[in-house]
Amino acid sequence: MAVQFTFNTSGMMMDAKGTITGTILDMVEELPHVVYINGDGTGSGNRVRAAFDKYPDRVLDAGIAEANMVSMAAGMALRGYMPFAQTFGPFLSVRALDQVHNDLAYNDLPVRLIGTHGGITSGYGPTHNTIVEFGIMNSIPNMTMIAPCDANQCIKFLEASLDWPQPIYIRIPRGEEPLVYTEDYKYEIGKAITVRPGSDLTLIATGSGVYNSLQAAKQLAEDGMSVAVIDMHTIKPIDREAIINAARTTGNIITVEDHNVLGGLGSIVADVLMEAGVPARLKKIGIPDKFVPFGYPDELYPVYGFDGPGIAATARQFMQ
Amino acid sequence: MTTTQGANADPVVDDGSTVVRINSVPELIEKAGFIRKQLALGTHRIGGVHIGGPLSATDMAVALYYKHLGFDPANLDDPYRNTFILSKGHNGILLYTIFCDLGLYDWDELLDTYNTVEGNTFGAHPNRLHVKGIEVSTGSLGHGLSLACGVAHANRDKQIPARVYVMLGDGEMEEGSNWEAIMYAASKKLDGIVAIVDFNHFSASFAAGENIVWPNMAETFRSFGWDAIEVDGTDMQAIDEVLSSLPPVDYANPGKPIAIISSTTKGQGIDYMEAAPGAWHIGGLSKEKLEETYEIIDAYTARKLAEV
Question: In this structure, what CATH number is given to the domain that contains residue A311?
Answer without folding.
Answer: 3.40.50.920
